[in-house]
Specification:
homodimer; DNA-binding; alpha/beta
Chain lengths: ~210, ~210
DNA sequence: AGGTGTGAACACTTTCACAGCA
DNA sequence: TGCTGTGAAAGTGTTCACACCT
């Protein structure tokens, strides 16, 4: 719909959807911005502002109809479809992610796993057979991959990243501790566990001396 | 030091430190805000603003002396010490994190692993013997744990979280897909892989229709 | 000249407050 | 009455531009 939706808004939309699905299962069919805010740790005004960026989904005096709003949110977030995901890097983090069932539940299907280690290539993980990272272009194209998850060592990233982008993938989830530089039409999200720990370290150090 | 430092500033400080250490290894001893900005994907003004929140570390006409600035940043971020970390949850994600060497390099030492599965309790992972989560209070106290990493299922979180906070831990890195409510003196950082994928899904869906 | 440190301008996000509809 | 949708106000973070030091 509109332009410039902030990262924080998108994150909150995900939270809203999660709560709606939880509440829907219990059989409640309407929810106020106040209730939704409480359950997601934000404010009622924020909820209404976020939703109003995309349309008018509520009823005054009543609140939001849960199934309708959930369906709107799914559409807004692009979760009304399946996304084909390739895991590049079959190491420990890669395999932990592969086993994690939360992805599939949300429509992210891991359709390929690639690794540089020739002893791993050919292994079968569930329905997926590991491919050689040398065949990256071939595999990503053949499997119509939308999103790539990078769990390779930092030093391999620049080369692999270029190839992934060149083949037309426009969404990348990066677990490597490096800053990626990509064209403007490619979106990168970083997950960096050390960075989060450092932020904790900072917070703990600050409050310490007060 | 000072008031309200933003999350983004802290994240950038971590990036700066990383680059400084990389560049120091190459033998360069001075760096301008412009160069530092380029390598961390921000602007020179931003670098100077961030650093100026904590002091005047640069020399006009010259730039920043690398070893000094690195050492200042380590102190600011609380990385001039070792942090004792407990891993609560010894499943796939937990074990992947345990094996990840990046934590130790930055001074985060995993001194305890706890799990609810009695068949895992007593297993030895490197130097650490897995404890029963029933003994959480005892273990966290005995090991003087500063930071807890939660990699347990969402449904176990509320109970475990209460106990972790009650025993005095003030830093939590949460991998469970739930919103944690904690007292004000406790800092929580969430790592949520599905949330990041949903943000990618949103971004890809937006640009699609243009 | 070269590059920092910083107030002031700007941009973006959140909160407030209330008109208006069910 | 109850609760949404939204302009306006407040609050935060980023960028600009320049005085000032080496």
């Amino acid at each position: 719909m509109r332009r410039n939706i902030s990262e924080s808004t998108v994150r909150r939309l995900s939270f809203y959807l999660r709560i709606l699905e939880k509440v829907e299962a219990v059989g409640i069919d309407t929810l106020s911005s106040e209730k939704l805010a409480q359950r997601t740790g934000t404010t009622a005004a924020q909820v209404r502002k976020d939703l109003s960026l995309f349309g008018s989904f509520g009823k005054r005096g009543l609140g939001y109809a849960i199934p309708q709003l959930a369906s709107e949110l799914r559409e807004i977030l692009g979760l009304d479809r399946t996304w084909r995901v390739a895991l590049v890097g079959g190491g420990r983090i890669g395999s932990a992610l592969f086993e994690y069932s939360g992805f599939r539940k949300r429509g992210f299907e891991i359709v390929a796993v690639l690794d540089a280690d020739s002893s791993k290539v050919g292994q079968r993980w569930g329905k997926v057979v590991l491919s050689d990272i040398a065949d990256l272009e071939k595999v990503l194209t053949a499997e119509s991959v939308d999103i790539v998850i990078l769990t390779i060592p930092a030093e391999s990233v620049p080369d692999v990243l270029d190839r992934v982008v060149a083949v037309g993938v426009r969404g990348i989830l990066n677990y490597a501790p490096v800053q990626l530089r990509v064209p403007g039409d490619v979106t990168v999200k970083d997950v960096n566990m050390v960075l989060e720990l450092e932020a904790l370290s900072f917070a703990l150090s600050q409050t310490k001396g007060e």
